[in-house]
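Appendix C reproduces, verbatim, an entry submitted by the partner laboratory led by Prof. M.T., so that reviewers can inspect both the input and the predicted structure.
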Amino acid sequence: MSSLIAATRWSVLDRSRTREGHPGAQALRDTVELAREAEALGYHRFWVSEHHAVPGVAGSAPTVLAAAVAAATSVIRVGTGGVMLPNHRPLVVAEQFGVLEALFPGRIDMGLGRSVGFTDGVRRALGRDKEEAEEFAGALAELLGWFTGGQDAYPGVRARPAEGLRVPPYLLATGEGAGIAAAAGLPLVVGDLRGRAKTVAAIERYRTEFRPSLWAAEPYVVVAGTVAVAASEWDAARLLVPEAWAMAYARTQGDFPPLAPAERIEALAMTARQRDLYEAGLRGHVHGTEEQVRQELEKAIAETGADEVLVTTSTYDRAALVDSYRRLARVAGLPEAAG
């Protein structure tokens, strides 16, 4: 095993994708079960995501789901990738993570994103608008202030039980967001495992501009992406088919569907536009046999200087998904995966 891979932390982000023929509740239960399996394999942390009013995603309340995951596990770190801060009042977010940390001390991560509701209708339902994202830096400072107790704007108000607790914050961002993470002294999460030039430049800027803080003494970079590992390159590529089709369908039909079996998707009569989007969705991911994936990951870590890799993979065949994470754990040299 390379020293790069051995020195890197390995974690899992699950988006609670729904599957054809299964209710949304099953997707949530699958997420909790996957967390147990990730813990058994030796992964460092397990994160859940926030999506509102998306038919193909059941994970709409990440702090609630994180509580279920933490209760079902014992040692793996648990958090969010992420709570979309523009959708919420900072005090409420602080209170929610304060409760999580109080219940599961030393295991909770506060992953935060800058996105606001995806459509006009969702934003109206949330009572937010696009301008909320432009105020992210201020909202972030307010949120962190609720933990330290420095909130002069709200005399007499204290975040209970968050005040005085140290819940590690992580910022999901690129571009301007990387600068915000550096100025605030927070770990950075970027979603580009392939390490495109723009991403590498943002990471370099983050490291150069980083200011040590109460939350982090030095820069820390988590690189997220899809990784599919199987017995053959062909089998690994087929794991990517359900998500690639869901994205293509969403961009042409305006509706993000549940994951479908690969064999049914491969038999579809796609429009030319759908075919182009579908084939594009199959590219740009790390996939293959264990040895192929090991080589790809070594290159990605070398290019980005990642301290940690956060894997987020979705496919219809859940058994194949768990097998992929098991094979990846072997690639990463996680001790529990060797047995």
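The first strand starts at residue 9 and ends at 14. Additional entries are available on request from the coordinating office.
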